[in-house]
Amino acid sequence: MGFDVDALRAAVAAHGRVIRVVVAEVRGSAPREVGAAMLVWSGGQSSTIGGGALEFEAAEAARRLDVPRRLSTHSLGPDLGQCCGGSVTLLNEVYTQEDLERLQGDVIARPVRPEPQPLAVTRILNNARAQGQRPKPQLIAGWMVEPVARATQPLWIWGAGHVGRALVGMLAPLPDFDITWVDVLRSKYPEEIPAGVTALPAREPDRLVPHAPSDAHHLILTYSHQLDLALCHRLLGHGFGFAGVIGSKTKWARFRNRLAALGHGPEQIARLTCPIGLPELGKHPQAIAIGVAAELMALSQRSDLKKEHSA
Fold first, then answer.
1. Cα dihedral sign for 222, 169, 150, 50?
2. What is the pLDDT of residue 71?
């Protein structure tokens, strides 16, 4: 979660005056978390703060905004007839091309009302600059603080067939994944590659493995079992955070034997996951993509919780 400066710049370039509506504070049960944001302009909007009635009312109010910024609190039950029961504080901010110039650095901090920068915010900014600490989105001492959105998890998808395309279409909109998409030919890819996805055609894809970060996640779903096996072999020698292979139990039994013959021990081989996804969902490419995406997101959630507990 973070301030998506690139999306805001694109919206301003396309629509001129854009209002960014961000969840600044939550009390009790609410549809979205602090930092969730949507962009609103005359005649349209993008992204979501959730909540149905909350979002509808917030978008209409944003279009009527006649001040540079406004903070408002909404009781979801009494005010909007929603069953969440909590309350949400929203920060509305107007952005034009001129306003974009002040969005500098890895952390966007600004006052809700004109007032000096408080010590608490200064500490957050200093820690971000000196130690690379990424703060949570928060309303603190009258200032809104948000880290700039950036993909933190490298994800390499090997294969641009039906399942690869379904996976990229599903995972590209998520903010956490920095996706590299590999296949043997440029013609294998769709005409339009989603924003934020790097297409990397290569005649011998397995030779790209050394260029992947050692903590990257990998999804192996090429047209060739031989290439899938070569990628598994390379990854076991290189290191990875997660590596999953599309296939059946029979395919995986053969792969285990062949990887063992290539010199990999049982503990190493067990780090690979095959089959990936949720087989009970079926074999349609979109169904496979849903299962694999769910598996990756659960993995990311567990990693985030582990980081929070160790912090």
1. negative
2. 96
Phi, psi of 101 (to 5 degrees): -65, -25
Tell me how far apart the alpha carbons of residues 33 and 36 are, in angstroms, rounded to a whole number.
6
Q: Which two tokens stand for residue 81?
A: 């007839």
In terms of Cα–Cα distance, which of 226, 246, 35 is closest to 147? 35
Q: What is the pLDDT of residue 53?
A: 86
Question: Residues with Cβ < 8 Å from 150, sequence gap 6 or more?
Answer: 2
What is the pTM (predicted TM-score) of this model?
0.77
Alpha-carbon distance 71 to 82, whole Å?
A: 21
Picking from 118, 141, 122, 58, the residue whose alpha carbon sits closest to that of residue 92 is 58
- Helix (H) / strand (E) containing 37: strand 37-41
Which CB contacts under 8 angstroms, 24+ apart, belong to 169-174?
169/194, 169/289, 170/289, 170/290, 170/293, 171/293, 171/296, 172/196, 172/197, 174/297
pLDDT along the chain (311 residues), means of 10: 91 96 92 94 93 88 95 78 74 96 92 92 93 91 94 94 95 91 95 92 96 96 96 97 94 96 96 91 92 90 63 51
